Amino acid sequence: MDTWWNSLDLLLKVMWAISLTSSIVFAIQMVFTFVGMDADGDLSGDAGNDTDNGGMPFQLFTFRNFINFFLGFSWTGIAFYGIIGNKVWLALFSAFMGALLVFLVMLLFYALSRTVQSGNINIRQTIGLTAVVYFPVAAARARAGKIQVTVQQTVREYDAMTDGAELATGRLIRITDVIEGNILLVEEM
Q1: What's the CA gap between 61 and 184, in Å, rounded?
Q2: What's the CA angle centered on 47, arms 43 and 48, to 5 degrees?
Q3: Which residues pair with 173 in a beta bridge?
Q4: Which of these ranges, 105-109, 134-138, 183-187, has the smallest mean pLDDT?
Q5: Does 118 fall in a domain?
Q6: What DSSP character marks residue 124?
Q7: Are residues 58 and 92 part of one domain?
Q8: Same domain, 34 and 93
């Protein structure tokens, strides 16, 4: 191994040192990510989807992006060392590829962050939806029953009252209004 290392010129030694160091740090970051240590107060220094940074959803200058840049830079430099003879052009091409890797990773995380749903449901979104009586609803608002309704691809259970006749378990009903809080006004279909 000494003969291999000694046969390399200075630029290639630097590329190998950067690639091995950044690869080890990247592997450690990946392990921490998969075991759940990449959340708040993580070791990456990445703000993730933090919009407190002047409205920017992602930060450019983070430790994770720094590692990604050097991964792309060093491994590109090693891969193209024998192909691109001019060392200045090799360094510029490697820097471009490192920046491109950072951009692509940020683009991927941005696309993934757009798929997140808040899970918060405004109860007024249920008005007009069809539901099923889960626990009988007493006539003339005498007593609340329970209904199940699908909102935002999730089945939710709410208390419900009706102005009409009693609604038995299993009946299809329509939600007409929100009475107060989380109590819905329903009618038979």
Answers
A1: 49
A2: 105
A3: 131, 188
A4: 105-109
A5: no
A6: G
A7: yes
A8: yes
